[in-house]
Amino acid sequence: MKSVIVDASFLVSLTSVKERQHAACLQVAQGLNSRLIIPITVIPEAAYLIARRISHRVMRAFLSKLQNPQWQIESITAADFERATQILDRYQDAELDFADSTIVAVAERLHVETILTLDRRDFQMIRPKHTPYFTLLP
Fold this sequence. Notes:
Shape: globular
Order of helices and strands: EHHEHHEHHEHE
Structural class: alpha/beta
Distance between the termini: 19 Å
Helix content: 40-55%
Largest sheet: 5 strands, parallel
Strand content: 5-15%
CATH topology: Rossmann fold
Strand order of the largest sheet: 3-2-1-4-5
Number of domains: 1
Radius of gyration: 14 Å
Number of helices: 7
CATH architecture: 3-Layer(aba) Sandwich
CATH superfamily: 5'-nuclease
């Protein structure tokens, strides 16, 4: 089964019908037959944004849904951490955030080429080690 990595922006938009890209994210999510990987570093960012933009109740419900086996919460290894800091240094002018750099590190380690994200600017710029570029959905 193919794997995809999920970014916070996708999770936030998927969570609320009020988000501008909700329909596009929902359509992608419903059409996937993939293992959904969420690096552990993405969860605090998504939870914070959901609580701030939507509500604390919705954030709690979101965290409960992550316990579903369809989601694979991926820990960050020491090598991922080192690679993430290399990515931050390499793309320092873009001021990537740490969660995005760990997404790239995990994607490289697991050989995942597709990222579910609305953050096209950052992920289009990054050149991963394992593929010429990432496929970004939606």
